[in-house]
Amino acid sequence: MKKSKGMRTETLYKIFIYVTLIALVITILIPVAWVFLASIKENKEFYGSPWTLPDGFYFQNFVEAFVDAKMGDYLLNSVIVTGLSLLILLVVALPSAYVLSRFEFRGRSLLNSFVKAGLFINVSYIAVPIFLMLLDWDSVLKVMFGDGMLLNNRFILATIYASTALPFTIFLLSSYFQTLPSDFEEAASIDGAGYYKTMISIMFPIAMPSIVIVILFNFLLFWNEYILALTLMPGDNKTLPVGLLNLMAAERAAVNYGPMYAGMVIVMLPTLILYILVQKRLTQGMTVGGVKG
Questions:
Q1: Whole-prediction pTM value?
Q2: Domain interval for residue 170
Q3: Is residue 165 part of a domain?
Q4: What Rg do the C-alpha atoms of the chain give, in angstroms?
Q5: Three state DSSP letters for 97-165
Q6: Is 187 contained in some domain?
Q7: Labelling 90: which of 46, 53, 144, 264 has CA 20 to 30 A away?
Q8: Nearest-CA neighbor of 222 among 126, 88, 86?
Q9: How do residues 28-67 score in pLDDT, each as one tens digit?
């Protein structure tokens, strides 16, 4: 009797889980699919039912978004900024996380405390201080060299992105490195490998599942970031989120919805492609390293 009751409870629990997951998938897929379909509609098709399928593929919306609204330029800026941010972040975070998690030295606990404290700093709260600081430094550069270079600079924005993501990235990578056994380092030491070679050739490849998670999460963070990009890029080097907001405001005012949804697709598509490419490694990264070897 108890066994039958337990099986019934387990079945109900599984049904609840499946229904919840299906509902979650539907709430995500339907809006995404609707945006994709809306991006290939002609403007006159928006005045009927919003759920009607497009009569054909109207790719002029993407042409207008890329050329007239300069979404192509904004896309290039986002690619450059995001790529530089990830490169700077990995170059700094990987060695830092490895050293903080695998070596004992004076001041280690203090450095770990600083890293954990950085997790509680919201980028939105420091955007204005960063802007004012760069503005003051730019004023000094203008006096010395006649021109400033810190605002509307893609490299500076990428550096700030990487800096704000360092605490989370170091914390996540350190947690992963701590789960790895010391056998790999001992074997490398016996073979004559130094600390640097062991870190680069052995430990980093082993930590690749965790590195993939870091790349994916931070890619989404940098790609969709809006506040710093709006504040620190007042010129022509706008990124996609800022350009998309300008496009949406312009097209809504002109009652021209097709290019607006085409701009949304341009923003979403790279993240979807990246997720599809790293989906397998992402699953590995979430399951590997949970138990110490």
A1: 0.84
A2: 62-287
A3: yes
A4: 24
A5: HHHHHHCCCCCHHHHHHHHHHHCCCCHHHHHHHHHHHHHHHHHHHHHHHCCCCCCCCHHHHHHHHHHHH
A6: yes
A7: 264
A8: 86
A9: 888 888 888 888 888 888 877 777 888 888 888 888 888 8
